[in-house]
Amino acid sequence: MRIAVCDDEKRFTQDFRTIMDKLYKSLDMIVDSYSDGNQLLKRFEERAYDIVFLDIEMPQIDGITLAKKLREKSEGVTIVFLTGHVEYAIKGYEVNALRYLTKPVTEQAVHEVIEYVLKKQRSENHMWIKNRDGEQRIKLSDIIFLEGQDQNIVVYTTSDSYEFRAKLNDYEKQLAPEGFFRVHRSYIVSLSKIIGVFGKEVTVVGGYKLPVARGKEKEFKEAFMSYVNKEAF
């Protein structure tokens, strides 16, 4: 899990790290600290966080404005505001914030937030990949398609793309029950992300156009129609 805490008070970010180190001694729990919201926003564009703890009152960019910008980039990020002013709570609804934590935050409050998100993640279908950035968890509902490139796979999602070393054969059977279909030797597509079928080609979210192999046409059409009919009820 990737967590960011943004607060212009250095003491607070240090205390937050101390709480996290005490609660979770895991290499999978990555915590980054920021004193400037613009720095966080730039980093988020490169690689999103699962949870962002935001101080509302910051000099460069206030927490509410920053949260709106983050929400534009990700519907899935969990936003938690840090404040001592309850009147800001109404603003939180505009960015679908999970909750407010009163500063100084307690171990129990932080623990409740982390466990809530962990539980939510475990209930969602996902796949794990391992690349040079380490192990990453990708929600299946975010995946548009997978592309095989020599000995690597590139996973295209609604917000990013991820490349790792593997073969499509390793994922074809695993993903089939989750609404995916291998339309071509180089592509496995999410049926839910198809927005058009034109002859031997499908158009998916993002405007990508993928070929349907000659020997796959009939099987693909049956699988796609079965999916469409199931979703209609």
Describe this structure as you would to a colleague.
The chain has 233 residues and is an alpha/beta fold. The chain has 2 domains: 2-123, Response regulator (Rossmann fold, 3-Layer(aba) Sandwich), CATH 3.40.50.2300; 127-231, OB fold (Dihydrolipoamide Acetyltransferase, E2P), CATH 2.40.50. It is built from 7 helices and 15 strands. The protein has helices at residues 10-23, 37-46, 63-73, 89-92, 107-123, 169-175, 217-231, and strands at 2-6, 30-34, 51-55, 78-83, 99-102, 126-131, 134-139, 143-149, 152-157, 161-165, 180-184, 187-190, 194-198, 201-204, 209-211. The chain has a 5-stranded parallel β-sheet, with helices on both faces. Helix 4 (89-92) links the parallel strand 4 (78-83) and strand 5. Helix 2 (37-46) packs parallel to helix 3 (63-73). The longest helix has 17 residues, at 107-123. The chain is elongated. The two termini are 35 Å apart. The model has no long low-confidence stretch (mean pLDDT 88).
Query: How many beta-strand runs?
Result: 15
Strand content is: 25-35%
Query: Which fold name fills CATH's third level, the topology of the largest domain?
Result: Rossmann fold
Residue ranges: pLDDT <50 for 5 or more in a row? none
CATH class descriptor name of the largest domain: Alpha Beta
Could you tell me how far the N terminus lies from the C terminus, measured between alpha carbons in angstroms? Answer: 35 Å
Helix and strand element order: EHEHEHEHEHEEEEEHEEEEEH
Number of helical segments?
A: 7
Rg of Cα set: 21 Å
Average residue-wise pLDDT: 88
Major sheet strand order: 2-1-3-4-5
Q: Give the overall shape.
A: elongated
Q: In the residues, how many domains can be counted? A: 2
CATH architecture call of the largest domain: 3-Layer(aba) Sandwich
Helical/strand content category: alpha/beta
CATH superfamily grouping of the largest domain: Response regulator
Largest sheet: 5 strands, parallel
